[in-house]
Amino acid sequence: MRGAANAGGFSLHADLDIQPHQREKLERLCRYVSRPPIAVERLALTPAGQVRYTLKTPYRDGTTHIVLEPLDLLARLAALVPGVHLTRFHGVFAPHCKLRAAVTPAHRGVGSKADAADCDKPLTPRHVAMTWAQRLKRVFGIEIDSCARCGGKLKVIASIEEPEVIARILAHIQKTAPDQHQAELPLGARAPPAQARLI
Question: For the whole model, what pTM was predicted?
Fold first, then answer.
């Protein structure tokens, strides 16, 4: 292809051009770039708790499915996440170019007025990453910061990752959990006093 090149382990594909009025073509390209790593409709859970993924086209040896443990699948997906920036800007868009403030919409750059005004201010991080508790609340709606029983504030005291320790803790919780038919009383409440029998 004329618009494709490979050099130093990197590939560049510039054979596709989209005109400003070609919205359908732009949408198709955006869908292609933002596609997920796997097709969710081809995922299934086996009775044994494993994940079965149906291949779009069988392998040469005839394999049509891949069966993995859930953690193995997550490990393989995590390996696809890049640890470095994949987009590099050069020329006037480079981070330290003096003309960057003149060509970017936010007018940020080495020679920008905002940069000069911020020199006297203390350095503060522009972006603070969310904690995992905040992410759970935002993505799944799970309120992990407050107790569901008393409404008090919770804090993280440990992060347990060893499967054997997790299994022991869960087994202990199952043993000490109240029976399902018994209603759990809220914190601070007591059962009414038993009536004394008169003889």
Answer: 0.35
